[in-house]
Specification:
This protein is an alpha/beta fold. It contains 11 helices and 9 strands. The protein has 2 domains: 177 residues, Rossmann fold (3-Layer(aba) Sandwich); 82 residues, rRNA adenine dimethylase, C-terminal domain (Helicase, Ruva Protein, domain 3, Orthogonal Bundle), CATH 1.10.8. Strands 4-3-2-5-6-9-7 form a 7-stranded mixed beta sheet. A two-stranded antiparallel ribbon has the order 1-8. The chain is elongated and about 65 Å long. The structure holds S-adenosylmethionine. The site of S-adenosylmethionine has 22 residues, from strand 1, helix 2 and strand 3.
Length: 274
C-alpha cells in the first residue's frame, strides 16, 4: 500500500468530475502537448493522455513509479521526468499547455517559473486561499504582490471551488481550479526584473503609501533611505499622476496604476544614471 507523503503535498484527486473539469477547461485537443506537475497515482495524467497529443509529467517521488509503469502500458504518449519541477529546465520541453493539481508547497515559485517560460493556457489546482489571492482586485484584503505579479501578465479566473472530499487523503482546506491565460498585450512592462523588484519593495508595506513603502524598504532597490527620499522628491514632481499615485496606499492601486508607476520610476532612475 502506498503511504502518501504530506511534505510532498500528496493529496490525490479521487473525484473524476474535477479531473474532467480541469481537462475540459484547458480545452485539450490532439494538437496539444501538455505539461503536468506531479503524477501522483496518475488520475489526471490518464485523462490528459486520452485527449492530448503528448503529456510530459514531472514527478519528484520515484516511489510512485509503479503507477507510472501501469499508465505507460496503456498509453504511449506519456513521458515521465523524475525530478524537482523547480529545477527541471522547462526550455527543453516543447509543451503548449499546463494542467496540474499542484503540490501546495511550490505553488508560488512554480507559477512564476511557468509564466516566465510561457504557454498558451494553464489550468492549475491550488489551495483556495492562494487562488483568491491570485484573482484579487485592488482594495481587498487578498490583494497583494501575487495578484499584481500574475494579473499584469495574464488573465486569471477561478473556474471551480473544490471540496476536501475530492481528494484522498483529505486536505484541511478547500482547493480551486484556476485558468491562466498569458496576455502579453495587456500591459507594457518596461523592465521585468525591475518590475518584480518594485512589487517586492512596495508590497512589504501594503497599508502604507507607496512613498513610505519605497523609503522604508529602499534597500531592496539598492538605495539608502536618505537617497530614496531625495529621489522621490524629484520623482513626484515629474507629473501630477505620479504625485497622486505615490501618495496612495499600496493596496489601493490597481494593476494598471502599479505597472505605470513602475515604468515611470524605472525610466526616471535610468535617466538619473545617464
Ligand atoms: N496529479 C495527481 C493527482 O491529481 O492526484 C497528484 C497531485 S498531488 C497534489 C502533487 C504531486 O506532486 C505528488 O505526486 C507529489 O509527489 C508531487 N510533487 C511534490 N513536490 C514536487 C516537486 N517539487 N516537483 C515535482 N513533483 C512534486
Amino acid at each position: 500500500m502506498f503511504k502518501p507523503k504530506k511534505k510532498l503535498g500528496q493529496c490525490f484527486l479521487i473525484d473524476k468530475n474535477f479531473v474532467k473539469k480541469a481537462v475540459e477547461s484547458a480545452e485539450i485537443t490532439k494538437d496539444d502537448i501538455v505539461l503536468e506537475i506531479g503524477l501522483g497515482k496518475g488520475i489526471l495524467t490518464e485523462e490528459l493522455a486520452k485527449n492530448a497529443k503528448k503529456v510530459y509529467v514531472i514527478e519528484i517521488d520515484k516511489s510512485l513509479e509503479p503507477y507510472a509503469n501501469k499508465l505507460k502500458e496503456n498509453y504511449n504518449n506519456i513521458e515521465i521526468i523524475w525530478g524537482d519541477a523547480l529545477k527541471v529546465n522547462l526550455d527543453e520541453l516543447d509543451f503548449n499547455k499546463v494542467v496540474a493539481n499542484l503540490p501546495y508547497q511550490i505553488s508560488s515559485p512554480i507559477t512564476f517559473k511557468l509564466i516566465k517560460k510561457g504557454f498558451d493556457l494553464a489550468v492549475l489546482m491550488y489551495q483556495y486561499e492562494f487562488a483568491r489571492r491570485m484573482v484579487a482586485k485592488e482594495g481587498t484584503k487578498d490583494y497583494g504582490r501575487l495578484s499584481v505579479a500574475v494579473q499584469s501578465r495574464a488573465d486569471v479566473e477561478i473556474v471551480a471551488k473544490v471540496p476536501p472530499t475530492a481528494f484522498s487523503p483529505r486536505p484541511k482546506v478547500y482547493s480551486a481550479i484556476v485558468k491562466i491565460k498569458p496576455n502579453k498585450n495587456k500591459y507594457h512592462i518596461e523592465n521585468e526584473d525591475f518590475f518584480d523588484d518594485f512589487l517586492r519593495t512596495i508590497f512589504q508595506h501594503r497599508n502604507k503609501s507607496v512613498r513610505k513603502a519605497l523609503i522604508n524598504s529602499s534597500k531592496e532597490l539598492n538605495y539608502s533611505k536618505d537617497e530614496m527620499k531625495k529621489i522621490l522628491e524629484e520623482f513626484s514632481n515629474t507629473n501630477l499622476e505620479v504625485k497622486n499615485l505615490i501618495n496612495e496606499k499600496v493596496f489601493k492601486l490597481s494593476v494598471k496604476d502599479i505597472v505605470n508607476l513602475s515604468n515611470e520610476f524605472y525610466r526616471f532612475l535610468k535617466r538619473d544614471k545617464n
